[in-house]
Write a structure and sequence with these properties.
Catalyzes the 2-thiolation of uridine at the wobble position (U34) of tRNA, leading to the formation of s(2)U34. 25% of the residues lie in helices and 29% in strands. It is of the alpha/beta class. It folds into 3 domains: 176 residues, Rossmann fold; 59 residues, Adenine nucleotide alpha hydrolases-like domains (SH3 type barrels, Roll), CATH 2.30.30.280; 76 residues, Translation factors (Elongation Factor Tu (Ef-tu), domain 3, Beta Barrel). The strands form 3 sheets. The chain has a 6-stranded antiparallel β-barrel. It has a 5-stranded parallel beta sheet with strand order 3-2-1-4-7, sandwiched between helices. Strands 9-8-11-10 form a 4-stranded mixed beta sheet, with no helix packed on it. Bound molecules: adenosine-5'-triphosphate.
């Protein structure tokens, strides 16, 4: 009989990675777990590492622990702060997936001689491409567009074909795992407990009152500090004598100014992205693109030149923010993406 294939599972202490571990063990793999200490939120790791250990003990596998707080700070957290300070909107999860979850973790998989790396992400892969998850309310493919494509043949996502509600139900039905089923869902950005500005406040001057301009450049009001705003935001600033809602259309960090306009001023028809991560080699193609998480993909024409992709959208899209990811999909197949530098 050939020796069992070994899988390393990223274990966060949550229900998804716990069930992932269980499913792989049941499939007959030799499974080991890894808990990574990523951010430095006080008190966080004590709780989550203990939960990951409880899960590993239940399943009967070894749990490794790595302290990667310095690397996380350099690769994910500091860029998050810098991007807001530059008046842009960051996507820390996509950076974390490339550098930490599918960067550091695959290196660790090599160290322990694991054939595969698995996580509890809701996404599918055939080893060549990523595909949207079966459960479209949980699909996380948008955040994995920047993962190095060379490692795809070594990735396993047992939850990609399943529904979150079934995963919870399964955990709830297993004696010893009930508490995992009833844990609160983790927040969208793991190191943001309340608001992102609360996190920024410890590192940069967020609350600096500044001018609100209209699209002609006239000063029309006041705001609380440009980092409080993302493109498309419509509250938290004043516009003298305004009757209609106004939306942030541009952020000018060097002058601490924001420009506001009507909804139609927000419409964006062309986007430029750089730092591409493409899963096919075509340089010009028609496809669809998602310009932020939880929005529908819109039809577009793409031309890649000088390591940048120029995207012409078939319909105007509202609230496109520099710093966010643009991710291309052919139906449910993710074919690549990049980072928005102009919109
Ligand atoms: N600190 C960590 N150490 C190791 N792996 C992790 C860690 N955080 C997340 N992962 C892996 O990445 C997957 C997706 O992470 P995400 O933060 O989206 O988790 P989630 O949806 O809350 O899942 P879970 O229920 O497993 O916590 C997890 O299921 C897990 O496999």
């Amino acid at each position: 009989m050939s020796p069992k294939k070994k899988v390393l599972v990223g274990m966060s202490g949550g229900v998804d990675s716990t069930v992932t571990t269980l499913l792989l063990k049941e499939e007959g793999y030799e499974v080991e777990g890894l808990y990574m200490k990523l951010h430095s939120k006080p008190g966080y790791h004590e709780i989550h590492q203990a939960r990951a250990q409880k899960a590993a003990d239940f399943v009967g596998i070894k749990l490794h622990v790595l302290d990667l707080q310095e690397k996380f700070n350099k690769n994910v957290f500091q860029p998050f702060i810098d991007t807001y300070a530059e008046g842009k909107t960051p996507n820390p999860c996509a950076l974390c997936n490339r550098t930490m979850k599918f960067g550091e973790m695959i290196q660790f998989a090599d160290q322990i001689g694991a054939d595969y790396l698995a996580t509890g992400h809701y996404i599918k892969t055939d080893g060549e491409f990523f595909y949207q998850a079966e459960d479209d309310t949980k699909d996380q493919s948008y955040f994995l567009f920047y993962v190095n494509k060379e490692i795809l043949p070594r990735l396993k996502f047992p939850l990609g074909e399943r529904k979150k509600s079934d995963i919870k139900r399964l955990a709830a039905s297993i004696k010893g795992l009930e508490s995992f089923a009833s844990q609160a869902e983790s927040s969208e950005i793991c190191f943001v407990e309340t608001t992102y500005t609360d996190v920024l406040k410890d590192h940069v001057q967020v609350d600096q009152v500044g001018e609100v301009l209209d699209t002609q450049g006239n000063v029309v009001g006041e705001h609380k500090g440009y980092m409080h705003y993302t493109i498309g935001k419509r509250r938290g600033f004043t516009v003298k004598g305004a009757h209609d809602p106004h939306f942030v259309t541009k952020i000018i960090p060097e002058k601490n100014q924001i420009i506001v306009g009507k909804r139609e001023d927000l419409a964006c028809n062309e986007v430029v992205i750089d730092n591409l991560n493409m899963f096919h080699d075509e340089k010009e193609f028609d496809t669809t693109v998602k310009l932020r998480y939880r929005t529908k993909a819109v039809k577009c024409h793409v031309k890649i030149e000088d390591d940048k992709a120029h995207i012409k959208l078939e319909e105007g899209v509202f609230g496109v923010a520099v710093g966010q990811a643009a991710v291309f999909y052919d139906d449910d197949k993710l074919i690549g993406g990049g980072w928005i530098i102009d919109a």
